[in-house]
Amino acid sequence: MKRIAVLTSGGDAPGMNAAIRAVLNQGMHHGLEVYGVYHGFQGLVEGDLRLLTVNDVHHQIKLGGTLLHSARYPEFKERKNQERAIEQLKKQKIDGLIVIGGDGSFQGALSLTKLGFPAIGIPGTIDNDIPGTEYTIGFDSAVTVALDAIDKISDTAASHERTFVIEVMGRHAGDIAIWAGVAAGADAIIIPEESFDMEQVAYTVRAGRRSGKDYSLIILAEGAMAVDEFVAEFKEHVPEQSVRGVALSHIQRGGAPTARDRVFATSMGAKAVDLLLEGQAGVYLGINEERVSIFDIVETLEKNEHKVREDLYKLNLELTDRDL
């Protein structure tokens, strides 16, 4: 191999830039030219590829987002667009591709590999919803941002003896809600993977107040229910309480990546280059017991079984289980 390329796809995640930087530096270490694909798979199909230099990436490790920009491009599922992408890569004499993104991005990487062009995946998504790996790039940063916001809201909640329902990201995965909720000492954590009883949530909040708490926090994953809808229904069960809802929304995507995300991203970016040079493709890198590990993309996509930390979810239930 003499040239490789790297792209980011789907939602941006803090730490993507650290991975891009590692790909470039490791590629240069091995004497490779590294091209950046701008605007994800759409940019790949349109031929928006540029040679990266150290100056492009050296200050990016501390920045959130992605310097290569990102775009959702469902049209890449079409065979003609996949073939067009390979034409663009071959036109630039590129021998391998590293794709940073979520499960949809991995589908794109796998489709290229099946057509004979080697691609390696790196999991970059704040939702932490890729089966196999324990962590995805951006998750730790998103939880840290969410927790900081929740802590600030709790100050106001305590001042007014109020209940706050705080919606965090997680359309199909409750990982951010669970980790931020446990860290914040939430009275209840609502996630799409687990059913909930509003009557029981109200009971838990009331029990907390009667045991001496001056405010209450409910952490709600967006995929379970919209915050306004939740607040309206919750108020019917606790008409005596002052209740407010807050959606943290996209602030969880931005900001400087944590040390954990920077280290994981750097490790996976460098390892992805090594794997391409070893002739591997159709795999992705993840974290297992704090170490970078290799996972099969096909097996991951076929399983499509994301599992949240049930032990943390149950722990929160135990810690908030009080008698009225």
Gross morphology: elongated
Radius of gyration: 22 Å
The count of β-strands is: 11
| Number of helices, where a helix is a run of at least 4 consecutive DSSP H or I residues | 12
The overall pLDDT, averaged over residues, is: 94
Can I get a quick summary?
This is ATP-dependent 6-phosphofructokinase. The chain is an alpha/beta fold and 324 residues long. The protein is 44% helix and 18% strand.
SSE layout and pairings?
Elements: E1 3-8, H1 16-29, E2 33-37, H2 40-46, E3 49-51, H3 54-57, H4 79-91, E4 96-101, H5 103-114, E5 119-123, H6 139-160, E6 163-168, H7 175-184, E7 188-190, H8 198-210, E8 216-221, H9 227-237, E9 243-247, H10 259-277, E10 283-288, E11 291-296, H11 297-303, H12 310-319
Parallel strand pairs: 1-2, 1-4, 4-5, 5-10, 6-8, 6-9, 7-8
Antiparallel strand pairs: 2-3, 10-11
Helix pairs in contact: 1-10, 2-4, 6-7, 7-12
Characterization of the model:
The chain has 324 residues and is of the alpha/beta class. It has two domains: 154 residues, 3-Layer(aba) Sandwich (Rossmann fold), CATH 3.40.50.450; 122 residues, Rossmann fold. It is built from twelve helices and eleven strands. The strands form two sheets. Strands 3-2-1-4-5-10-11 form a seven-stranded mixed beta sheet, with helices on both faces. A four-stranded parallel beta sheet has the order 7-8-6-9, sandwiched between helices. Helix 5 links the parallel strand 4 and strand 5. Helix 6 crosses helix 7 and helix 7 runs parallel beside helix 12. The longest helix is centred in the middle third of the chain and has 22 residues. The protein is elongated. The termini are far apart. Catalyzes the phosphorylation of D-fructose 6-phosphate to fructose 1,6-bisphosphate by ATP, the first committing step of glycolysis. This is ATP-dependent 6-phosphofructokinase. It is an enzyme of class 2 (transferase). Its main location: cytoplasm.
